[in-house]
Write a structure and sequence with these properties.
Elements: E1 3-6, H1 8-12, E2 13-17, E3 20-22, E4 36-39, H2 48-63, E5 78-81, E6 88-94, H3 124-132, E7 136-144, H4 155-164, E8 169-174, H5 181-186, E9 192-197, H6 203-210, H7 215-228, E10 236-242, H8 250-262, E11 267-272, H9 274-277, H10 286-302, E12 305-308, H11 310-326
Parallel strand pairs: 2-6, 6-7, 7-8, 8-9, 9-10, 10-11, 11-12
Antiparallel strand pairs: 1-5, 2-3, 3-4
Helix pairs in contact: 8-10
The protein binds iron/sulfur cluster (2 copies).
One iron/sulfur cluster binds next to loops.
Amino acid sequence: MQQYKSCHLLEHGIYFYYDSIQVCCFLTGKLGTPFWLTKDYKGQKIDWDALCGQLREIREKNKQGIVDPHCEGCFNLKEDSWDEEEYFSNFYISHWTRCNCNCKYCYTEENKKFFNSHKEYKMMPILQEMIERKLLRFNGYLAYGGGEPACLDEFDDITELFLENNVRSIVTNSSGIKPVKSILKGIPTGRLDVTVSVDCSDRETYKKIKQIDAYDRVMDTLKMYAAAQTENKTLVRSKYIIIPDVNDTEKGIENWLEQTVDIGLKQVCIDIEGRWYLPRKNNVPEHIANLIALVERRTKELGLGLFYYSYADQFRFDRDKKLAEQNQ
Ligand code: SF4
Ligand code: SF4
């Protein structure tokens, strides 16, 4: 088998977005633009021969050492003996935007035109056709974007199709306002995880951020999900996105962590609101850095696992690098 630079998505991945089909959702390569396979996609019949041909062409170039500019410099590229078979096993499904809340930081907020009004195309017929063509395998993962699972009619059908075929893992994000049948079914299998953005510890702040009065319902859903966990206790996570001037208080974070423990969760996620963070990433105010340090210290004391989401992860990476340089 030939060794060459590629990635698990170029080999066997596909990303269904609300207006396109892409190889991946990363913008980490030199171009910094999405790696489109089909732009302006709205559910038209897919020419699988052409689409697989596009991917084959990219892989053939990789074999000759010519890396696509979309991928140049991407952390996902690695030299390996990639298998030669043509199939898709790493899915990212983010073809819907409907939701039962309206977070201030949601990407659909930037374009009010499609918040809760964009009609998604159907995914199940696409997956059925992939099965018929022997293009779909269940030895990888399914990651959802979206949109809220409870607002997608096909969510249970898609999830159950992957669960019944023993997919390795399913990653879901949900508002938690309404429990979702297939999420509840997936948690005890140990192969489905769910992250719920709570972002606060009280009804009033929740209303301010999510523009709906549903804090108590979210906590009930989280309790229900926590109770469905079996031996693997870190499949249900509560997330806190620090939004300066909205929920950036020590008390808010302390209460959130304590409530998380009370409802039986074992892991939390932390993030920083992206539109605020990006222009300040080289000069993050001490107050925000201290809040991250507080989360790190208190999760240790409370025995909670801590998962850093995108901007918090970037913040941690930059902070730790700077500290290491200073200590040299
Ligand atoms: S190498 Fe990076 S940019 Fe290229 S397909 Fe893989 S994840 Fe996407
Ligand atoms: S829960 Fe997610 S999809 Fe819904 S409004 Fe919030 S960020 Fe957007």
